[in-house]
Amino acid sequence: LPCVGLYLKIFRWINHGHCEMPHIILGCLFLYNTGDSCEFGSMKYYALCGFGGILSCGITHTAVVPLDLVKCRLQVDPAKYKSIFTGFSVTIKEDGVRGLAKGWAPTFIGYSMQGLCKFGFYEVFKILYSDMLGEENTYMWRTSLYLAASASAEFFADIALAPMEACKVRIQTQPGYANTLRECAPKMYAEEGLWAFYKGVVPLWMRQIPYTMMKFACFERTVELLYKYVVPKPRSECSKPEQLLVTFVAGYIAGVFCAIVSHPADSVVSVLNKEKGSTAAQVLKRLGPMGVWKGLVARIIMIGTLTALQWFIYDSVKVYFRLPRPPPPEMPESLKKKLGLSE
């Protein structure tokens, strides 16, 4: 994919001309240096978390463009694309194998920018809200903290994503409209102005904010539960490969719930970006309670795998750059004393 070349250039720049992209994931599996490269909550920490978000979202979303294309066409034209398999066969018959890659450029750019804001701002808001609550309240209300921090981060992430998402859907669902981002963006601007790129931002918030809240809160709590009830030893005693395996499993579990929670809004976004002059309310009314669930199976497969890989890549980047990775939260001693749980 063309996006791989861009990532290789980024890594060459970071590593002073030496590209280590092919070895980053493998390298982090065997990196046992326990020293942190920066302070938790520092600007360098936030910047590298944002970079991890770029890699995790940009790579994964671009990799599943063919499945995303078929899913979008199932949503906007269910009469023609009756199932995942017919969707693939019709697309290949009409556009060839290369047709399955339609929309890769706006996907790569849009979701890289979204990943930067989503993961970077999540770390910012999580620490900010934690400092506001204090140690005891942070532990007792940690799920609410994850939900609030992820919702805040996604609000800004979707503003960055909206223009490219609009182009992607237009390219994928309107055959003949445009084949490339360079064709699509100027054409959309000429026809509808700047509004063409942001008319889907509200339904995008409707889709992505619940999705991200579920993604982060479910992941954080699943990791906590896995280490508490499934993994037979504390995280500090687990090797890096074992920790990343837990990350992948927790990410997949979170991804399944994400797909279900956000799918109705995803259907609305797909139809809205295809049609001119429609509103979210009009599309929702026309689709009805059954129509909004079209393409759910494809999306569960896509989002489950996507979310697991995103968390795996993100955590791998943290390990590779030796970022601080606090263990799952434990009840503070002061709270144990208040509840009479300490000796």
From TrEMBL:
Any Pfam family matching the protein: Mito_carr
Domain of life: Eukaryota
Assigned keywords, A-Z: Membrane, Mitochondrion, Mitochondrion inner membrane, Repeat, Transit peptide, Transmembrane, Transmembrane helix, Transport
InterPro entries given in the database record: MCP_dom_sf, MCP_transmembrane, SLC25A3/Pic2/Mir1-like
GO biological process: mitochondrial phosphate ion transmembrane transport
Tagged with keyword Transmembrane helix: yes
Spans traversing the lipid bilayer: 244-265, 296-314
Topology relative to the membrane: Multi-pass membrane protein
One example GO MF annotation: phosphate transmembrane transporter activity
Coiled-coil annotated residue ranges, if any: none
GO cellular component: mitochondrial inner membrane
Catalytic activity: phosphate(in) + H(+)(in) = phosphate(out) + H(+)(out)
Main location (coarse class): mitochondrion
Subcellular location(s) of the protein: Mitochondrion inner membrane
Solcar repeat coordinates: 44-128, 141-225, 242-320
Subunit structure: Interacts with PPIF; the interaction is impaired by CsA.
Family in the record: Belongs to the mitochondrial carrier (TC 2.A.29) family.
Function per UniProt: Inorganic ion transporter that transports phosphate or copper ions across the mitochondrial inner membrane into the matrix compartment. Mediates proton-coupled symport of phosphate ions necessary for mitochondrial oxidative phosphorylation of ADP to ATP. Transports copper ions probably in the form of anionic copper(I) complexes to maintain mitochondrial matrix copper pool and to supply copper for cytochrome C oxidase complex assembly. May also play a role in regulation of the mitochondrial permeability transition pore (mPTP).
This protein's name: Solute carrier family 25 member 3
Organism: Astyanax mexicanus
